[in-house]
Amino acid sequence: MSDLKTEPFDKFPLPIVAKAFVSSCTYLSQEGGGLETNEVAQLRKEIAKAAGEHGGAFVSEAQRPELKAPHYSNLSIAKYLLQQVRSCEKFIFILFGEGQGHLLNLDGTQLTSTFFELELYQAAILGKPIYRLCSKAFRFAQQIQILRLLDFGFLGPTSQPDQLDDAEISSAVIAILLNESHAERWRVSSAEVRPDVLVERLMRSRDRKFGEQSKTPMHFLDLPNSGFDQYASPSIDMNSVLSLMTAQGRRMFDDHMDEKLAWAWLVMRELMVTPLLDFAGKIVVREPEILSAWNAALTTWHGAASWSGHHGHTRMGTMPTLVTLSEVRRAIREDRHLSVSGTDYFGASIVDPVGAFGSSYYSLAKMVSSPMRADVLSEVHSCLDQAVKLEPHAAAGILAVRASACLLEKRCTEAVELYERSFQVSLSQGQSKSDLGTIICELGFAQVQNREYRKGRRTLEEGIDLLRDQKMRGMLVNHGDMVRALVKAAFANVVTGHWWKGAQYLADAHTIADSKGLNAYAARREIRYVGRFVDQARKRFRRW
């Protein structure tokens, strides 16, 4: 299985940091095949050369021509391209020819997804400014397919593009790099919206608990409309789906969050060739393997989207994902004649994810202000009340989420008590030392919030020492939990006068959050600026 092998990361040199990523996958044509002309190859080189004088643009085929099979597997190439998209400020794609990019190949089987899709949705979910340029050689028979693909992400509706010759395309790329005013005509991503505004829009317009009851229920990507690919096979290739699941399962824990989202996207795109839902939002698929694959992909997407900070989006955020996941698990339970619990075809849980709903509502509550915050927190407690009955094995986590909600409600003493109970439950259930360290850190932060400043700082540092010890011993430690603990320890040290130690904790949080795609934390100002400052100070100290 050549495409499933894990290439060492150092096979790739350090990423080329460019101002823009230019997707040239759509230059290629003939149903995603590899045919290309000298004209296209020359245009790539001209764009890369011209952009080099104005901040730089990454054009894969021009700057990394060796980045292809059989030297690298398709999955490792995709990982590298996603890394480049993350590092660039802007994303530019050019429509050329007939197709929508190279189809990924897995063990000799073509997948439904293209490299271009992965690049585009990555740019969209990261909120990059996205620009579309259209060659005069582009065949408009393909335009509807491209526009529907664009609408999958965080993009607004697009009009018919201007067709440009090669010289005009190069000039347009430069104009985009230089932020010239007329470059906005090629921008297709929606205007940036503050997170709190985005969340309120979600809660009022699409979440049936807070909006009009007549509103269409949220579903991931509005799935009834998603099976659009005219090149897709008439039935799902479960061999490809299972191979993808096997490949990702080998290193799921340490993957960058964006790579987890990419894997989930690949699996779901294979599954989308047949409808999952009808237009009433009811599951129409009944095959156990297919439903179980949806369960795995949606579960992964929800977890990675949460740590990446994608809570407020109405089509790709945590809420529509959970709504669809809930429907999938209900269908599995019905087909297996189970009431509230059990496992799917692959042995994964099919319990209704009410606990995850409660956690997601808590995250949303932090992003809105009164009076909506009180309503959202009420929903947190309602979900957790149900979770206690459905997920007794998750009692410690449920108590911890409830304690966090109490902190938002300024019920600090109650929060401390709940975290202490969570710790005792974790001990009684024999949870790992990593899990215990996480709970200890949460308890310490609650103590700080309860004005037990020094006690809370000591508790936090005890928990972080335990997490670091487990990491040193090669045990699995959740990177998100570690970052969250470090940020809270930094706060505790600052309020008790230990400024430099607090800054060091933030530097460590910055390093982990940045390397693992924990954007929900990496975007925080104190991590971003203090972390970089301390990192630079450390480097100067080593040189001395």
Backbone shape: globular
* Class based on secondary structure composition and strand pairing: mainly alpha
Low-confidence runs of at least 5 consecutive residues: 1-15, 27-35, 225-233
Task: Work out the number of β strands.
Answer: 7
Write the layout of secondary structure elements.
Blueprint: E1 20-23, H1 38-51, E2 57-58, H2 60-63, H3 74-87, E3 90-95, E4 103-106, E5 109-114, H4 115-125, E6 130-135, H5 143-150, E7 163-164, H6 166-177, H7 195-205, H8 238-249, H9 257-271, H10 288-307, H11 318-335, H12 354-365, H13 372-390, H14 395-408, H15 412-428, H16 433-449, H17 453-472, H18 479-495, H19 499-516, H20 519-522, H21 525-543
Parallel strand pairs: 1-2, 1-3, 3-6, 6-7
Antiparallel strand pairs: 4-5
Structure description:
The chain is mostly helical. It has 21 helices and seven strands. The protein has helices at residues 38-51, 60-63, 74-87, 115-125, 143-150, 166-177, 195-205, 238-249, 257-271, 288-307, 318-335, 354-365, 372-390, 395-408, 412-428, 433-449, 453-472, 479-495, 499-516, 519-522, 525-543; strands at 20-23, 57-58, 90-95, 103-106, 109-114, 130-135, 163-164. Strands 2-1-3-6-7 form a five-stranded parallel β-sheet, with helices on both faces. Strands 4-5 form a two-stranded antiparallel sheet. It is globular.
